Structures are given as C-alpha cells and as structure tokens.
Amino acid sequence: MRALNPLITPKYFAKTEVHTALQELVISQLPPHVQATQHSIYPDVTVIQNDPVATMPVIQKSIATVDAPMERVIDRPQRQQLRTVNIYRADNREVVTAIELLSPANKVGDNLGQYQQKRSRIIASAVHLIEIDLLRGGQRPGPEVNTPPIDTDYIILRNSENDHMERVSKIWPVAINEPLPTIPVPLLFPDSDVALDLGALVQEIYVSDYYHLQIDYSKPVPAPKLRPEMASWWAKQRNRD
C-alpha cells in the first residue's frame, strides 16, 4: 500500500483490508497411525453481558465429581491476519485491482474454499486480481496453476482481461533462490500499469523489522520438504557458510 500510493495518486488510492482467521486446533499425543486434521475458522461475533460477576448469583453448592479417565492437550488456535490491498478510484471508491497476499489460512481447510469463492467472484467481475503466494505449503487456490501443476516454490499471478475480453492469468514462477520479480499492476484503461518491485519491498521489510535477528538459519527448513534441486542448493549454501 505504501509503495503503490505515491505511484497512483491522485486518480487512485490503495488501502489495506485486514481479516483475522483462527488457524487449526491440533490434538497432541495422538496415536502414530491417526492423522490430525486441519480446520480453519473465522471468529464469530460475540455479545458479552456487561459486568456479569456483579449481576449473577454465586453458586455455592458443592457436588462430588469424578476424575476424567483421559486427558489430552490441544494447541491454542493461532490467529492469522488475512490481508488484501485494494486499489480504488478516488472519485467514486470503485475497486479497480485486488492484491491478495496469501496466508497459510488461505490454502487449507474451509478458508481455502472461502478464498476460492472470493477469487471466482473477482475473476467474474471487472476487477483485476494480483495473487502473491510466497508459501510452499498448502494447496494453491487457482486452477490455472494446478492443471497441470507448476513445479516451483512461489507463485506471483496477475489476472485481468485481454483485448478479446478474456480473463488471462500471467504467472511468474519463482524458486527460493531467485529474486522476486517487478510486476505490472493494472489500472483502468487507458492508464498505464505501475511497476511494483516485490523484491525491494521484501528486502525493506526484512531490514526494517529485523528479521535477521528473528530467523535462525541454522535450524532445519520448515515443512514441507524442499524440492530436490532446492535441497541441493540449500545444502551447498550451508556448507559454504
């Protein structure tokens, strides 16, 4: 949003929309042959009575209880921020382009289906779509990158109408050892695309948020396993260090 606004003002403006999702609850200590399932939910709206302690009577009667024969610990649900950067026309607040930065919640369980429905609605409209998938895990939501599947680590995608009124996805496959591309962000005809340098943005965030102190590169690479060529490349990097 901060990178786009200086490029598109005064005719357009970009704004970030944030939604919170609760990521899967996983039961620990399951038998080895039982696979834990993943399930993502959006939080409900909750109405809470004001000062319930002062208004509710205290229950003092004691009842004998029986200890539960089993006890299992579950992980707390992880809150994830789902972000969309929308580009609007400044005069009438019409959405022109939606930029989706995929999170793990977009790629598994119920949230995957919900995001795919949102994606289909965007593609059925006149709104341009940019999809930034910097996650190796989970299912990629778009059919155009799954049939046939693209053997890569990251996917940058731009979907918009061509001159024949067809919705066409331009796809940038990116390996983890390659720089992120500078992509064209579409606006309304006849306005030209604006260039968004994803590599520079990631580098700026990495430095400003001190990720070099937060990430321990001596630890194993998180799941899923690296593709064979990337595993070989990473091993060479580790040996060089």
Folded structure, characterized:
The protein has helices spanning 5-8, 52-55, 109-124, 198-208, 211-214, 228-240, and strands at 12-22, 79-89, 95-101, 128-133, 154-161, 167-174, 182-185, 194-197. It is of the alpha+beta class and 241 residues long. The protein has a domain at 5-41 and 74-197. The strands form 2 sheets. Strands 1-2-3-4-5-6 form a 6-stranded mixed β-sheet, with helices on one face. Strands 7-8 form a two-stranded antiparallel sheet. The chain is globular, with a radius of gyration of 23 Å. The two termini are 36 Å apart.
Write the layout of secondary structure elements.
Elements lengths: L4 H4 L3 E11 L29 H4 L23 E11 L5 E7 L7 H16 L3 E6 L20 E8 L5 E8 L7 E4 L8 E4 H11 L2 H4 L13 H13 L1
Tell me, rounded to a whole number, the average pLDDT: 81
Percent helix, as a range, is: 10-25%
Task: Going across the biggest sheet, name each strand in turn.
Answer: 1-2-3-4-5-6
Main sheet overview: 6 strands, mixed
Q: SSE order in H/E notation? A: HEHEEHEEEEEHHH
Tell me the radius of gyration: 23 Å
Number of strands: 8
The shape is globular
Distance between the termini: 36 Å
- Name the poorly predicted regions: 23-53
Tally of alpha and pi helices: 6
Query: How much strand?
Result: 15-25%
Structural class, by secondary structure, is alpha+beta
